[in-house]
Write a structure and sequence with these properties.
By secondary structure, this protein is α/β, with parallel strands linked by helices. It contains seven helices and nine strands.
Amino acid sequence: MTGVSVRYRQRGARQQSGVPAVSDVSFSVAPGEFVAIVGPSGCGKSTLLKAIAGLVPLTSGHVTFGSGPETRVGFVFQTDALLPWSTASGNIELALRLAGASVTAARKRARTLLAHVGLENAAELFPGQLSGGMRKRVAIARALAYDPALFLMDESFSALDAQTRIHVGNFFLSLLAESQQTVVFVTHDIEEAVALADRVLVMSHGPGRIECEIAVPLPRPRDYHASRFAVGFDDLQRRVWKALPAPREVDQ
Protein backbone atom coordinates (compact mmCIF):
# COMPACT_ATOMS: atom_id res chain seq x y z
CA MET A 1 0.00 0.00 0.00
CA THR A 2 1.59 3.27 -1.16
CA GLY A 3 0.27 6.79 -0.60
CA VAL A 4 -3.31 5.63 -0.10
CA SER A 5 -5.94 8.23 0.67
CA VAL A 6 -9.68 7.60 0.82
CA ARG A 7 -12.50 10.12 0.94
CA TYR A 8 -16.10 9.08 1.39
CA ARG A 9 -18.32 10.95 -1.01
CA GLN A 10 -21.19 13.00 0.29
CA ARG A 11 -24.37 13.03 -1.72
CA GLY A 12 -24.00 15.35 -4.67
CA ALA A 13 -20.29 15.99 -4.01
CA ARG A 14 -17.30 14.98 -6.07
CA GLN A 15 -15.04 12.29 -4.58
CA GLN A 16 -12.14 14.75 -4.19
CA SER A 17 -14.31 16.96 -1.96
CA GLY A 18 -15.73 14.16 0.22
CA VAL A 19 -15.06 13.38 3.86
CA PRO A 20 -11.42 12.26 4.38
CA ALA A 21 -11.08 8.86 6.07
CA VAL A 22 -7.37 8.03 5.64
CA SER A 23 -4.57 10.19 4.25
CA ASP A 24 -1.34 9.21 2.51
CA VAL A 25 -0.96 5.79 4.16
CA SER A 26 1.96 3.59 3.13
CA PHE A 27 3.02 0.25 4.57
CA SER A 28 3.99 -3.20 3.40
CA VAL A 29 3.37 -6.67 4.80
CA ALA A 30 5.76 -9.55 4.20
CA PRO A 31 4.45 -12.99 3.18
CA GLY A 32 3.48 -14.92 6.30
CA GLU A 33 3.62 -11.82 8.50
CA PHE A 34 0.90 -10.92 11.05
CA VAL A 35 0.38 -7.15 11.22
CA ALA A 36 -2.04 -5.55 13.69
CA ILE A 37 -3.44 -2.04 13.26
CA VAL A 38 -4.57 -0.03 16.30
CA GLY A 39 -5.77 3.54 16.66
CA PRO A 40 -8.52 5.75 18.04
CA SER A 41 -12.13 5.32 16.99
CA GLY A 42 -12.85 6.87 13.63
CA CYS A 43 -9.22 6.93 12.49
CA GLY A 44 -9.87 4.83 9.39
CA LYS A 45 -8.67 1.37 10.46
CA SER A 46 -11.60 -0.43 8.84
CA THR A 47 -11.34 1.80 5.78
CA LEU A 48 -7.76 0.59 5.27
CA LEU A 49 -8.92 -3.03 5.23
CA LYS A 50 -11.65 -2.19 2.74
CA ALA A 51 -9.10 -0.37 0.59
CA ILE A 52 -6.85 -3.45 0.55
CA ALA A 53 -9.82 -5.64 -0.36
CA GLY A 54 -10.92 -3.27 -3.12
CA LEU A 55 -14.24 -2.53 -1.42
CA VAL A 56 -13.81 1.25 -1.47
CA PRO A 57 -12.36 3.44 -4.24
CA LEU A 58 -9.02 5.11 -3.58
CA THR A 59 -8.78 8.87 -3.87
CA SER A 60 -5.04 8.49 -4.44
CA GLY A 61 -2.28 5.92 -4.09
CA HIS A 62 -2.34 2.23 -4.93
CA VAL A 63 -2.46 -1.23 -3.38
CA THR A 64 -0.32 -3.99 -4.88
CA PHE A 65 0.16 -7.66 -4.09
CA GLY A 66 3.54 -9.32 -4.49
CA SER A 67 1.91 -12.54 -5.66
CA GLY A 68 0.10 -10.79 -8.50
CA PRO A 69 -3.28 -9.19 -9.21
CA GLU A 70 -5.17 -12.46 -8.70
CA THR A 71 -4.19 -12.69 -5.02
CA ARG A 72 -7.08 -14.18 -3.06
CA VAL A 73 -8.19 -12.26 0.01
CA GLY A 74 -10.24 -13.63 2.93
CA PHE A 75 -12.20 -11.03 4.93
CA VAL A 76 -13.46 -11.84 8.45
CA PHE A 77 -15.71 -9.14 9.86
CA GLN A 78 -16.51 -8.18 13.46
CA THR A 79 -19.88 -9.86 13.14
CA ASP A 80 -19.87 -13.35 11.67
CA ALA A 81 -22.10 -12.14 8.79
CA LEU A 82 -23.50 -15.63 8.22
CA LEU A 83 -26.72 -16.05 6.26
CA PRO A 84 -29.28 -17.04 8.94
CA TRP A 85 -31.40 -19.08 6.50
CA SER A 86 -28.49 -21.26 5.41
CA THR A 87 -26.73 -24.03 7.31
CA ALA A 88 -23.10 -23.89 8.39
CA SER A 89 -22.19 -25.97 5.37
CA GLY A 90 -24.46 -23.93 3.11
CA ASN A 91 -22.77 -20.67 4.07
CA ILE A 92 -19.40 -22.06 3.05
CA GLU A 93 -20.77 -23.75 -0.07
CA LEU A 94 -22.19 -20.42 -1.27
CA ALA A 95 -18.75 -18.80 -1.05
CA LEU A 96 -17.27 -21.66 -3.04
CA ARG A 97 -20.03 -21.56 -5.66
CA LEU A 98 -19.45 -17.82 -6.13
CA ALA A 99 -15.78 -18.65 -6.68
CA GLY A 100 -16.77 -21.02 -9.49
CA ALA A 101 -16.84 -24.44 -7.80
CA SER A 102 -19.42 -27.03 -8.84
CA VAL A 103 -22.20 -28.03 -6.45
CA THR A 104 -20.51 -31.36 -5.67
CA ALA A 105 -17.05 -29.85 -5.22
CA ALA A 106 -18.41 -27.03 -3.04
CA ARG A 107 -20.21 -29.42 -0.74
CA LYS A 108 -17.18 -31.69 -0.37
CA ARG A 109 -14.84 -28.75 0.29
CA ALA A 110 -17.27 -27.21 2.82
CA ARG A 111 -17.39 -30.45 4.82
CA THR A 112 -13.59 -30.68 4.76
CA LEU A 113 -13.27 -27.11 6.03
CA LEU A 114 -15.82 -27.65 8.79
CA ALA A 115 -13.85 -30.69 9.93
CA HIS A 116 -10.70 -28.58 9.84
CA VAL A 117 -12.26 -26.09 12.29
CA GLY A 118 -13.69 -28.83 14.50
CA LEU A 119 -17.32 -28.46 13.40
CA GLU A 120 -17.87 -31.57 11.29
CA ASN A 121 -20.94 -32.43 13.39
CA ALA A 122 -22.49 -28.98 12.93
CA ALA A 123 -22.67 -28.98 9.13
CA GLU A 124 -26.49 -29.03 8.98
CA LEU A 125 -27.08 -26.61 11.85
CA PHE A 126 -28.24 -23.06 11.23
CA PRO A 127 -26.39 -20.03 12.65
CA GLY A 128 -29.11 -19.54 15.26
CA GLN A 129 -28.33 -23.02 16.60
CA LEU A 130 -24.61 -22.28 17.02
CA SER A 131 -22.74 -20.56 19.82
CA GLY A 132 -20.84 -17.33 19.16
CA GLY A 133 -17.54 -19.18 19.01
CA MET A 134 -18.93 -21.77 16.61
CA ARG A 135 -20.32 -19.07 14.30
CA LYS A 136 -16.95 -17.34 14.29
CA ARG A 137 -15.24 -20.59 13.31
CA VAL A 138 -17.73 -21.04 10.46
CA ALA A 139 -16.91 -17.48 9.33
CA ILE A 140 -13.19 -18.31 9.38
CA ALA A 141 -13.85 -21.54 7.47
CA ARG A 142 -15.81 -19.54 4.88
CA ALA A 143 -12.84 -17.19 4.48
CA LEU A 144 -10.55 -20.22 4.15
CA ALA A 145 -12.76 -21.48 1.32
CA TYR A 146 -11.12 -19.02 -1.04
CA ASP A 147 -7.68 -20.38 -0.10
CA PRO A 148 -6.59 -16.79 0.60
CA ALA A 149 -3.00 -15.66 0.56
CA LEU A 150 -4.09 -12.75 2.76
CA PHE A 151 -6.49 -12.60 5.70
CA LEU A 152 -8.11 -9.25 6.51
CA MET A 153 -9.71 -9.25 9.96
CA ASP A 154 -11.77 -6.37 11.33
CA GLU A 155 -12.28 -6.60 15.12
CA SER A 156 -12.98 -10.25 14.43
CA PHE A 157 -12.92 -11.49 18.05
CA SER A 158 -14.34 -8.44 19.83
CA ALA A 159 -17.94 -9.65 19.92
CA LEU A 160 -16.97 -12.85 21.78
CA ASP A 161 -16.96 -13.35 25.53
CA ALA A 162 -13.53 -13.55 27.18
CA GLN A 163 -13.31 -17.35 27.41
CA THR A 164 -14.57 -17.95 23.86
CA ARG A 165 -12.23 -15.25 22.59
CA ILE A 166 -9.24 -17.15 24.00
CA HIS A 167 -10.37 -20.43 22.44
CA VAL A 168 -11.07 -18.89 19.01
CA GLY A 169 -7.87 -16.83 19.15
CA ASN A 170 -5.78 -19.92 19.82
CA PHE A 171 -7.65 -21.85 17.15
CA PHE A 172 -6.82 -19.13 14.61
CA LEU A 173 -3.16 -19.05 15.67
CA SER A 174 -2.96 -22.81 15.19
CA LEU A 175 -4.38 -22.47 11.67
CA LEU A 176 -1.80 -19.82 10.82
CA ALA A 177 1.02 -21.98 12.17
CA GLU A 178 -0.01 -24.63 9.63
CA SER A 179 -0.73 -22.39 6.65
CA GLN A 180 1.74 -19.51 7.10
CA GLN A 181 -0.82 -17.10 5.64
CA THR A 182 -0.44 -13.34 5.81
CA VAL A 183 -2.75 -11.39 8.15
CA VAL A 184 -3.72 -7.74 8.56
CA PHE A 185 -5.73 -7.50 11.77
CA VAL A 186 -7.60 -4.42 13.02
CA THR A 187 -8.28 -4.24 16.75
CA HIS A 188 -8.88 -1.66 19.47
CA ASP A 189 -7.38 -4.05 22.06
CA ILE A 190 -3.68 -3.33 22.65
CA GLU A 191 -3.10 -6.60 24.51
CA GLU A 192 -4.65 -8.55 21.66
CA ALA A 193 -2.51 -6.72 19.09
CA VAL A 194 0.72 -7.51 20.93
CA ALA A 195 -0.30 -11.10 21.70
CA LEU A 196 -1.04 -11.88 18.05
CA ALA A 197 1.11 -9.72 15.81
CA ASP A 198 4.67 -9.64 14.53
CA ARG A 199 4.31 -5.89 14.10
CA VAL A 200 1.83 -3.26 15.35
CA LEU A 201 0.97 -0.18 13.29
CA VAL A 202 -0.37 2.78 15.29
CA MET A 203 -2.67 5.25 13.54
CA SER A 204 -3.35 8.91 14.20
CA HIS A 205 -6.75 10.52 14.65
CA GLY A 206 -8.78 10.67 11.47
CA PRO A 207 -8.10 11.20 8.69
CA GLY A 208 -5.78 8.41 9.73
CA ARG A 209 -2.07 8.18 9.05
CA ILE A 210 0.49 5.66 10.30
CA GLU A 211 2.13 7.32 13.30
CA CYS A 212 4.65 4.57 14.05
CA GLU A 213 5.25 0.84 13.90
CA ILE A 214 6.40 -1.38 16.74
CA ALA A 215 8.00 -4.78 16.18
CA VAL A 216 6.83 -7.61 18.46
CA PRO A 217 9.75 -10.06 18.84
CA LEU A 218 7.86 -12.57 21.00
CA PRO A 219 8.65 -16.15 19.94
CA ARG A 220 6.22 -18.33 18.01
CA PRO A 221 4.20 -20.47 18.31
CA ARG A 222 2.15 -18.27 20.62
CA ASP A 223 -0.78 -18.73 22.94
CA TYR A 224 -3.48 -16.05 22.71
CA HIS A 225 -3.70 -15.74 26.51
CA ALA A 226 -0.39 -17.06 27.87
CA SER A 227 1.61 -14.66 25.67
CA ARG A 228 0.48 -11.87 27.97
CA PHE A 229 2.76 -13.27 30.69
CA ALA A 230 5.83 -13.56 28.46
CA VAL A 231 8.97 -11.60 29.28
CA GLY A 232 8.81 -8.24 27.52
CA PHE A 233 5.06 -8.27 26.90
CA ASP A 234 4.29 -5.48 29.38
CA ASP A 235 6.99 -3.27 27.89
CA LEU A 236 5.63 -3.78 24.36
CA GLN A 237 2.12 -3.02 25.54
CA ARG A 238 3.30 0.23 27.18
CA ARG A 239 5.13 1.25 23.99
CA VAL A 240 1.96 0.83 21.93
CA TRP A 241 -0.11 2.67 24.54
CA LYS A 242 2.31 5.63 24.59
CA ALA A 243 2.33 5.76 20.79
CA LEU A 244 -1.45 6.15 20.60
CA PRO A 245 -2.62 9.76 20.17
CA ALA A 246 -4.24 11.38 23.19
CA PRO A 247 -8.06 11.42 23.13
CA ARG A 248 -9.59 14.47 21.54
CA GLU A 249 -11.60 16.73 23.78
CA VAL A 250 -15.34 16.41 23.29
CA ASP A 251 -17.04 19.67 22.50
CA GLN A 252 -19.40 20.71 25.25
